[in-house]
Design goal:
The protein is an all-alpha fold. The chain has 21 helices and no strands. About 65% of the residues lie in helices and about 0% in strands.
Length: about 325
């Protein structure tokens, strides 16, 4: 590739096109001895942007030799981007002293973006050392979502109390509320359904998504008898208004007989082929499969009311009365 130091240095070029081409070339020739040696040198002493990318691709066999300087820069480097890259690279080192150093650096970190990276990468460990930093950063706009997710991973009583407080606080930022809802659903606490259902009416789409995904995490183990009706009614009511998560809501509603009356009504009134297909799938999976097979052709034929009529006569979905009758037949 010619001038190797110049090529690796160009990975930090401010022009995205130049940076991307240089990065692609280094990746292509990264096993060449001179390229590998320059990547290692740049990962230790390079300029900020080029060093970040060199750290991302630093070969495993060189990490041990560089470990003292990498751990020192984890807290000492003035660049937040370099510190983020160090967290990313060191998280893959399965050694106790490295993990201890990462948690110590998390305690000392003051940049929200770096904290978010720490919490995101360390969050799935479930280590109780996450509790302190996560609780301190919950109210930060940038680090809050990662902090909420980390609390869900910890899952102890203190983490549960903090997440419960987030879910019931009207001032919680929408991205953090979304993450808290998903985390609390994955934890499956006794009151999770009753804390998540009110969030389905939240004005922010992110929060609705978090609540639906939280309920989806609980659906695998099944809802309690006294929860089933409330979950069914709330999700069916939101299907037509929040169409981007129809597939997720469909998974949650599967097997909930309490949803059938609302689904029959939904088939009759919705103008969305996707929502209608999901409702029919829940009412009768076999006929819904037929409907999906013919959806592409159905878009070419419309009745005066604008409803699709390009499906087989056996499904009979042209006109609201026929739709309603078909849906009731499928449900029965």
């Amino acid at each position: 590739p010619g001038d190797v130091p110049a090529l690796v240095r160009l990975m930090g070029d401010p022009v995205p096109g130049v940076q991307g081409r240089a990065h692609a070339m280094v990746l292509e020739f990264r096993q060449a001895p001179d390229i590998e040696a320059e990547v290692v040198r740049t990962a230790q002493w390079g300029e900020e942007d080029a060093r970040v990318r060199a750290l991302w691709m630093l070969p495993d066999q060189h990490v041990d030799r560089l470990l003292p300087s990498l751990l020192r820069d984890l807290t000492g480097d003035p660049s937040p981007e370099v510190r983020c890259a160090l967290v990313f690279r060191l998280k893959r080192v399965d050694r106790r002293e490295v993990q201890d150093a990462l948690f110590a650096a998390l305690e000392a970190e003051r940049d929200p973006n770096v904290v978010s990276q720490f919490l995101f990468l360390l969050g799935r460990s479930g280590d109780e050392r996450l509790l302190g930093p996560a609780s301190r950063w919950l109210n930060d706009e940038r680090a809050g979502p990662s902090a909420a997710a980390a609390l869900g991973s910890v899952g102890n009583k203190a983490a549960t109390r903090l997440l419960r407080a987030l879910l019931t606080d009207r001032t919680t930022a929408a991205p953090t509320l979304r993450a808290a809802a998903m985390a609390y659903g994955e934890m499956g606490r006794w009151d999770a359904v009753w804390l998540l259902l009110p969030l389905l009416d939240h004005a922010a789409p992110d929060v609705y998504e978090g609540a639906v995904r939280g309920l989806d995490a609980m659906a695998g183990t099944g809802f309690r008898p006294w929860e089933r009706g409330a979950v069914a009614r709330a999700l069916v009511a939101g299907l037509d208004a929040n169409r981007t998560l129809v597939g997720v809501a469909e998974r949650v509603l599967a097997g909930l007989a309490e949803a059938l009356p609302g689904l029959r009504e939904l088939v009759d009134r919705t103008t969305s082929p996707m929502v209608r297909a999901a409702a029919l799938s829940l009412l009768d999976p076999h006929n819904a499969a037929v409907l999906r097979t013919h959806q592409s052709s159905s878009s070419k034929c419309r009745t005066k009311s604008g409803r699709s009529c390009g499906v087989p006569a056996s499904v009979a979905l042209c006109g609201s009365r026929s739709e309603s009758a078909a849906a009731r037949t499928m449900g029965e």
